[in-house]
Amino acid sequence: MHKTLSQLFLAAGLSLCVPLSAWAQVQVQDPWIRGTVPQQKATGLFAQITSARGGKLVSGSSPVAGVVEIHEMSMDGNTMRMRALTNGLDLPAGQAVMLKPGGYHVMLMDLKRPLKTGETVPVSLVIESAGQRETVEVQATVRALAAGSQGASPGHGAHHNHQGHKMD
Ligand SMILES: [Cu+2]
């Protein structure tokens, strides 16, 4: 855990505008973004977020996306549904919250360009804790569709994902 935090620190370029308290308070581990095909306008960011004091993930931003929202995906019968968590995603104190395919995710929408596997994308996540807002800068790695996320082949999975976003 400590190793990962210091790696993030280095990966984020030790941005001076990030208050050190944000790093002590919030850990974002293994941030990644699902890669996109050229026409695709939306994708998800996934990570494991731990807030030491407890708080909420309330918003985000990234230079590659026009709009960033916090979403939840869940099964409704046989249909995968997605909704925006307008009040944010709860981060219980000291508990790692998983953002993963088929569940919570940070939705990057109105993408300005395709995101290629292997590239690194900066994303700012805003976490509210005890009335204070802290911005955590993460460098997310773009990956191909996660193996086993929905039991689909990469091509079908990406297509499904795209349709899901359009439903929103
Ligand atoms: Cu979404």
Mean pLDDT: 82
The strand count comes to 10
Strand content: over 45%
Q: How would you sum up the global shape?
A: globular
Number of helical elements: 3
Measured on Cα atoms, how large is the radius of gyration? 15 Å
Order of helices and strands: HHEEEEEEEEEEH
Helix content: 10-25%
**Which class of secondary structure composition applies to the elements?**
alpha+beta
Bound molecules: copper (II) ion
Query: Main sheet, how many strands, which sense, barrel?
Result: 10 strands, mixed
Oligomer: single chain
Unreliable stretches (pLDDT < 50, length at least 5) are 146-164
Distance between the termini: 35 Å
Task: Give a verbal description of the structure.
The protein is of the alpha+beta class and 168 residues long. It has three helices and ten strands, in the order ααββββββββββα. Strands 1, 2, 3, 4, 5, 6, 7, 8, 9 and 10 form a ten-stranded mixed sheet that branches. A hairpin with a 2-residue loop joins β9 (120-129) and β10 (132-143). The protein is globular. Copper (II) ion (CU) binds next to β8.
